[in-house]
Each structure stands twice: as C-alpha cells, then as structure tokens.
Amino acid sequence: MTTSGLGEFEQMVLLAIAHLRDDAYAIPIAAEIERRTGRRVAGAAVYVTLRRLEEKGHVASWMSGPTPERGGKGRRCVRLEAAGARALRDARHA
Hints:
Layout: H1 8-20, H2 26-37, H3 43-55, E1 59-63, E2 76-80, H4 82-93
Antiparallel strand pairs: 1-2
C-alpha cells in the first residue's frame, strides 16, 4: 500500500465517491466532478485514477450484478475505504 500524497484529480475522484456513496462508478463520478468543477472529465482518466486509488488502498471495487439497461453487463462499483477518507483529511489539512 502506497502512502504518497494525493494529486488534485485523485482528491476530486475521492470526494465524488464520498458524495455518491452507493451509486459510485465511473460515469456518475465523472458527472459529479463536471457538475462541481465545470471541467470536462474524460472517462478514461476516471478509470485510470480509480485503479491507482485501489492500488493505494483508498478505494475498493467490485462488479455489480447484471443490469437490464446495460444489456446484462455489470458495473465496476467503488467505495471509499478508511485509508481514502484519511488521505482526504490529510490533503485538506496540508
């Protein structure tokens, strides 16, 4: 588990996950960041950042069950882990 500080976009992704709670997956995360910042967010940037945050132990992910609107495909959902919440607090105090 890496203990390095958070980048600006990593902080935005973690904050979006915290706000979305149970509905956190890449598309709503990108939409939440766009809504709050007015900045366009590439989906690929969110996916890469989520993978990096999971490697650091800040988020956990799992595949949801199949959904009718996605033709039976599941979504990779994420949740904020305690380490991610601590990293956000530390970044805010820094």
